[in-house]
Amino acid sequence: MPPVKLLSMLVLTVLGTLLASFQVQAEEAAPKKIVLVAGRPSHPPRMHEFNAGVQLLAKCLENVPSVQPVVVLNGWPKDESVFENASAIVFYMDGGAGHEVVQEGDRRMKMVDAWVDAGVGIGCMHYGVEVVSEQAGKPFKKWIGGHYEHMFSCNPIWEPRFEAFPDHPISRGVQPFSVQDEWYFNMRFLGGIPGGKSETIEGTVFTPILVAGPSDDVRDGPYVYPKGPYPHIETSKGRAEAMMWAVERPDGGRGFGFTGGHFHDNWGNDPFRKVVLNALLWIAKAEVPSDGVDSKITTDQLNANLDPKGR
């Protein structure tokens, strides 16, 4: 091969390598787009304030250089282009048969499943972790590691004490805390695991983040809906329960479920808020700061954007 031609090939090879390197660096430097989808208004004032909640979380992320929060209000967006190039998508909304993800037959579920297969992180919060098992239980176990099941899981309003946290990025900077909320437990987790400890199921790494043991009174007493007690809940007395968990799938995709978030005012609690903000970064594959996401909330900010709800 003539020297000039060989030199040209070498130059092109080097330029190609440099270009590929620059593209990778640019992708790593670009903010991770996190789409926060709020459900429609439900429940009395200061409960299920999904619209206000996602806007508050987005504001807390405004000064985090590695992410770009995007808010969708009042249910599934009419313009689905908002989901394009998302690194993570989070659903904070009513669930069950009315869950936004299970509407339009299976069209939306297929869309979410395609996102997951492409590596997009998925998070579900509060009622948004509940689906009808026969309808969406299997995909939810794939996407976020588990779900709430009517008459199997339970939803008492109680005040667990979260004192120990796993060695996980979502736990960074989270201090022990206790908050009264409608903390669901006894979830349907992948592989049928109880969920109180870290496990690997068919290559998916499951990590409980917020774990506490309900008292006998919580297990035996009436629940918000439907009224208890449930024998299968009572027989698990003494067992630690996961009320927030995270999964990392074999392909590296991530998801989390968070069962708190019934009472809007709880977003004013620093550790409560931090553990969720950390989770938003983690599922987007953004770096979680060593001390977690730092944020401050004023009373005015907490009271902003609340749904009318007949006030």
What does this structure look like?
- This protein has an 8-stranded mixed sheet, with helices on one face.
- The protein is of the alpha/beta class.
- It has helices at 3-29, 50-60, 107-117, 133-144, 216-220, 231-234, 270-283, 299-303, and strands at residues 32-38, 67-72, 88-92, 121-125, 146-147, 157-158, 161-162, 177-178, 181-182, 188-189, 199-201, 204-212, 241-248, 254-258.
- Helix 2 links the parallel strand 1 and strand 2.
- It has one domain (31-303): Rossmann fold (3-Layer(aba) Sandwich).
- The model is unreliable at 18-27 (pLDDT under 50).
Gap from first CA to last CA: 82 Å
Share in helix: 25-40%
Low-confidence stretches: 18-27
Annotated CATH homologous superfamily:
Class I glutamine amidotransferase (GATase) domain
User: How many distinct helices?
Assistant: 8
How would the global form be characterised? globular
Task: Kindly estimate the percentage of residues that lie in beta strands according to DSSP.
Answer: 15-25%
| CATH top-level class | Alpha Beta
Radius of gyration: 21 Å
Strand order of the largest sheet: 2-1-3-4-14-13-12-11
- SS elements, strand count: 14
Average pLDDT, to the nearest integer? Answer: 92
CATH architecture: 3-Layer(aba) Sandwich
| Largest sheet: number of strands, sense, barrel closure | 8 strands, mixed
Q: How many structural units, i.e. domains? A: 1
Which fold name is given in CATH as the topology? Rossmann fold
Order of helices and strands: HEHEEHEHEEEEEEEEHHEEHH
Counting helices, strands and paired strands, the structural category is alpha/beta
